[in-house]
Amino acid sequence: MQANLYIIWSPSGGGKTSLVTALATIDHNVRRSVSHTTRPPREGEVDGREYHFVDRATFQRMTDAGEFLENAEVYGNYYGTSSRWIEETLAAGQDIFLTIDWQGGVQVRAHFPDLIGIYVLPPSLDVLRERLEARDQDSPEVIAKRLATARDDLSHLVEFDYVIINDIFETALADLAAIVQAERLKCRVQTQRHESLIRNLMKR
Asked: How far is Cα 191 from Cα 75, in angstroms, rounded to an integer?
């Protein structure tokens, strides 16, 4: 089965990771890419689940060896996506979600022009601020920076294919599932998947 590669992005606290994680529990053909990062683990995070946590020297070695499909510096830490894992997972017929920003999306699209972009918006900046404060992971200064970045990143909204408003989580999750299903039902995908059926139906 032909698999799709997605980039899903939202401001910090916008819910992108929670949405993909929830989707993967109900759709076993969906995988979330686990990036490598030099960021230290937050409380409750597990190496290999949220991220592959590596030191800067290891990350640099991997970069020099060309192991990353994309990589970027975000808030002073480095993040990268494994090229080999992406290729192997797509070849196995599983859809992949990359939770990376628009800059990483530009790098990935250079290799995968059919990349599908989904932008997740909060219902308001006030709600986004409340979510960031409720996480209790960042200082007020960092939260202010994240909110400023969220406003700046909105200029790239038009570069994405779909927009989801994450106000009510269950509704946003249903919207995400609907996008995935719609992409699987596109004509080019279905004609490839059911080539034998279509050929038999066309026989006189």
From this structure: 44
Sheet of strand 30-32: strand arrangement = 30-32, 95-98, 5-9, 116-121, 162-165
Q: Enumerate the β-bridge partners of residue 95.
A: 30
Domains and CATH numbers, the chain: 5-201 (3.40.50.300)
Residue 107 vs residues 18, 100, 159: alpha-carbon distances, Å: 24, 11, 13
pTM of the entire structure?
A: 0.84
How do residues 85-94 score in pLDDT, each as one tens digit? 999 999 999 9
- Work out the pLDDT band at 22, boundaries 50, 70, 90: very high
Q: Which residue carries 């949405």 as its tokens? A: 19
Question: Would you say residue 31 has pLDDT above 90?
Answer: yes
- Please tell me the distance from the alpha carbon of residue 50 to that of residue 42, in angstroms, as a whole number: 10
- Taking only the tens place, the pLDDT of each residue in 92-140 is 999 999 988 888 888 899 999 999 999 999 999 899 888 888 887 778 8
Q: H/E element holding 79?
A: strand 77-82
Alpha carbon distance 80, 71 (integer Å): 4
- Euclidean distance between CA atoms 79 and 105, whole angstroms: 13
114 vs 4: CA distance, rounded Å: 8
Give the tokens for residue 92.
Answer: 């196995």
Q: Which H helix or E strand runs over 165?
A: strand 162-165
Residues 36 and 51: their CA atoms lie apart, in Å, by 6
